[in-house]
Amino acid sequence: MLKGKTAVVTGGTRGIGFSIVKKYLENGANVAIAGSRQESVEKALEKLPEYRDHIMGIWPNLCSPDEVAKAFASVKEKFGSIDILANNAGVSSRTGLYDYQLEEFQKVVDLNLTAVFVCSQAAARIMKEQGGGVIINTSSMVGEYGQPAGCAYPATKFAVNGLTKSLARELAKDQIRVNAVAPGVTNTDMVAALPEEMVKRISAGIPLGRMGEPLDIANAYLFLASDLASYVTGITLRVDGAAMS
After folding, report:
1. How many helices (H) and strands (E) would you count in the chain?
2. Spatial CA neighbour of 88 closest among 192, 234, 225
3. pLDDT of the residue at 108
4. Residues 6+ apart with CB under 8 A from 145
5. How do residues 227-243 score in pLDDT, each as one tens digit?
6. With bands split at pLDDT 50, 70 and 90, how would you rate the model's confidence at 141?
7. DSSP-H helix ranges across 111-151
8. Closest among 72, 180, 63 to 125, alpha carbons compared
9. What share of the chain is helix, strand, coil (3-state, %, to 5)?
10. Quick check: 93 and 122 in contact, CB under 8 A?
């Protein structure tokens, strides 16, 4: 579905991001894995030896326009293009308002929102020259419902939804589609660390009767990146088993 295309996946070293990387590789894409540290990126690359000719690693500061531009230029130099950007890097927070420190709030805003802007701008400049491309942002179900603590996280996801719609309208003339995926509760490392009883309680509140798996989210990323979604732009696709707040 993605043969001959090149994707950059931020937050691609583990969890949902790594599942997106594998799904894209399985479907013929070249993939640049972007992570926060060189060590974590290299460990992720080591897990994909069969794709060694189709993968590379980058670890820029995602909030630095200069670092991101240089890293993306290296991807284009190696593979010839950047056709897909998956803005998946992010961080959560559960601190209550009365204890929230500005530094913690700003950290969430930086990675969940500022980095999405910086990476989208750098990728869009390359995509425009190529005649088009696809940008997919990771939102969240709490971007619609909010959450009872850690207000920075849902605030950034609300903002990502708005950024997605706005960029979709702005970049359509350049044949760049922009969409978002909003996962529900997903079986990542963070959830795996929860007590079994809590996991059962969470799953019972999901109409489909189970939590999502990283593969469920990766499949949505594959669809939106592919030509099957060639007339789909400006949406936030919920992948949450019909879960409610």
Report:
1. 10, 7
2. 225
3. 95
4. 154, 244, 245
5. 999 999 999 999 999 88
6. confident
7. 115-130, 142-145
8. 72
9. 55, 15, 30
10. no
DSSP state of 114: I
Cα–Cα distance, 232 to 218 (Å, whole number): 17
Q: Is 221 a catalytic residue?
A: no
How big is the chain, counted in residues? 245
Options 24, 51, 98, 153, the catalytic residue: 153
How open is the CA angle 34-165-227, to the nearest 5 degrees? Answer: 65
Structure tokens at 45: 């690359």
* Per-residue pLDDT tens over the stretch 151-191: 999 999 999 999 999 999 999 999 999 999 999 888 887 67
- The string over 194-223, giving b where at least 16 C-beta atoms fall within 10 Å of a residue's C-beta and e elsewhere, is eeeeebeebbeebeeeebbebebbbbbbbb
